[in-house]
Amino acid sequence: MTDLDFENWTCPVPLRDTPAVVMGHGGGGAMSGELVQHLFLPAYGPIELTDSAVLPVGAGRIAFSTDSYVVKPMFFPGGSIGDLAVNGTVNDLAMSGATPLYLSVAFILEEGTLLTEVGRIAKALGAAAAAAGVRLVTGDTKVVDNGSGDGVYLNTSGIGTVPDGVTIAPTRAAAGDAILISGDIGVHGVAVLSVRQGLEFETTVRSDTAPLAGLVSAMLATGADVHVLRDPTRGGVAASLNEIARTAQVGIEVTERSLPIPAEVADACSLLGLDPLQVANEGKLLAFVPAAQADEVLAAMRAHPAGAGAHRIGTCVPAHPGMVVARTALGGTRVINMPIGEQLPRIC
Predict the structure, then answer these.
(1) What is d(CA 67, CA 69) in angstroms, rounded to the nearest whole number?
(2) 213-220 and 81-94 are packed helices; what angle lies between their axes, rounded to 10 degrees?
(3) N or C: fewer beta carbons within 10 Å in the chain?
(4) Three-state DSSP class for 47?
């Protein structure tokens, strides 16, 4: 009998007990990771799939990213699928330190969708591109049968240039790094959910969808050696921190009382049994920087409109590599796990 090489064994399908795609596969958590690791990567070959790939071109480097948007509903307080698509792709490029330049956009339209709605989305998309300082340069339109879609789906791809001397990647997180966040968390997810579920609050919760390239530029202008940037979208802060901890094999400790969770978000999550750390954001970033440079970077973030509510929330530690823990107000600790699927499907 031939010996099996278990160390190099790759399962061709996700490891959860389901023979078909479920909503959790699109949630940015453990099930999404399994789908990529055990189905897509074996099919594609020895490559690395990231939100934004940094590639050599001539004597320089470019960042390239693509994303799809299926948010339901298409319009929500603070935004729409149109500006969400632009900002999401711009932010993926920015998280590699790139200056976003060009975008493509593809519309997948369901037969029967009102042209007035398509027009609103197109105008929002164009306005968001202008605000982010990027140009829409190519695109496509497809129509599917009535009942085969859900109004409008979008796909956007983006290209940007990466400055010399900038290397930002999750592998660079190191023990001693300070962990910063640019502002309140969980706002986008609750804004979408409030419309979808008819929830009412004392004040309207508006999505935080916004371009972050300007904020990143201000951070890099300090000269600090920014190690990691990540926009905590699907799966929220919990998914992003766990991905970074596992990739860099460092431990991460956050202080619960330092997490900027608005009262409306906390109340909605308490009511619905959700964890704010797993709720999507669309206009916030996490930054890992050397502790000695943290105050300077934090000051630059707070001086920019997109980072006015920035906080230091934690530290990278050599203990418990690959694990994220929170220090509670009572002095104890709890593990922050990687989400399995998605608390709120169709959120972006």
Answers:
(1) 7
(2) 20
(3) N
(4) coil
Largest Cα separation within the chain, whole Å, is 69
State the pTM of this model.
0.88
Contact at 8 Å (CB) between 163 and 86?
A: no
Q: Tens digit of pLDDT for each residue in 167-213?
A: 999 999 999 999 999 999 999 999 998 888 777 776 788 999 999 99
Q: Going from the N-terminus, what domains does the chain have, and what CATH number goes with each?
A: 6-44 (no CATH), 53-161 (3.30.1330.10), 170-335 (3.90.650.10)
CB < 8 Å & 24+ apart, contacts of 23-28: 23/341, 23/342, 23/345, 24/340, 24/341, 24/342, 25/341, 26/234, 26/342, 26/345, 27/234, 27/235, 27/339, 27/340, 27/341, 27/342, 27/343, 27/345, 28/233, 28/234, 28/235, 28/239, 28/339, 28/342
- Length of the chain measured in residues: 348
Residues 266-291 have a mean pLDDT of 93
Tokens of 191: 């804004």
Residue with tokens 């969770």: 261
214 to 85, 87, 291, 317, 319: CA distances (angstroms) = 17, 12, 23, 30, 34
Q: How far is it, in rounded angstroms, from Cα 38 to Cα 31?
A: 10
Q: How far is Cα 329 from Cα 253, in angstroms, rounded to an integer?
A: 14
- Amino acid of residue 323: M
Place of tokens 């530690």: 317
Interstrand relation of 333-335 and 251-255 (parallel, antiparallel or unpaired)? unpaired
